[in-house]
Amino acid sequence: MTFNIAGKVALVTGANRGIGKAIVESFLAHGAAKVYLAVRDISSTAELEAKYQDKVQPVALDLSSQQAVSAMAEQAADVDVVVNNAGVAIQTSPLADNIEQSLQLQMDVNVYGLIRIAKAFAPQLEARNGALVQLNSVASLRTNPAYAAYCTSKAASYAITQGLRKEWLDKVTVVSVHPGPIATDMAVDLGLKSDNGPELVAEEIVTAMAAGQFHLYPDDFARKLGSAYQSYATSVVEA
């Protein structure tokens, strides 16, 4: 399926900075009617509200609670596309003393959070032939041992995204986004450097939705990894 953002209503989680903020601005530039800014602290969206006025609306986000996510979906009942961008990344090696606790936290946000979002918004996305975009990262395809728990959570979220695509065939456009290092605050916190800005990812998402593309590798680093994986992805995952 294909999806054109023009005239549509979107909800973006983690919309106040980095890739999430870039997606908001890209969607509006491409003609989106309105974007809900789903964030933990609604005061953090002041800059976007001042710039876009009634084109944006902040909503409180708590990915750890199905009740809270469902309430958010009721508040944003006119949504056509959901971008699940919010996530957490914690440096944890596979033999670290806190590996279990770190993995539990990252699974709760990065995986169970996606499941909660999908369950809450499924009725309206199906009714509207809408779209769901999931930020999965190249970490879902290859593990960096320093971030083993994060990579594990992203591999799991990628698996759930594949399931959603099959569940929603001919109903909802699903895009699995696998960026490499992108110049964001999170990348800085993780000690990663990149010449690619978040705007690149945002624009590639718009293009992928319009093309009905499931796997998206938006930057050069991701495309190199994706080119090695694509044969399997096409013949097995997308079959």
Describe the 3D structure.
The chain is 48% helix and 13% strand. It has 239 residues and is of the alpha/beta class. It has a single domain, classed as 3-Layer(aba) Sandwich (Rossmann fold). The protein has a seven-stranded parallel sheet, with helices on both faces. The radius of gyration is 17 Å and the shape is globular.
Q: What is the residue-averaged pLDDT?
A: 94
Query: Sheet bearing the most strands, described?
Result: 7 strands, parallel
Straight-line N-to-C gap? 14 Å
**Can you say what the CATH homologous superfamily is?**
NAD(P)-binding Rossmann-like Domain
Describe the strand arrangement of the main beta sheet, using strand numbers. 3-2-1-4-5-6-7
Query: Low-confidence stretches at least 5 residues in length (pLDDT < 50)?
Result: none
- The tally of structural domains comes to 1
Q: Write down the Rg.
A: 17 Å
Helix content: 40-55%
The total of helices stands at 8
Order of helices and strands: EHEHEHEHEHEHHEH
Q: For this structure, what is the CATH class?
A: Alpha Beta
Structure class: alpha/beta
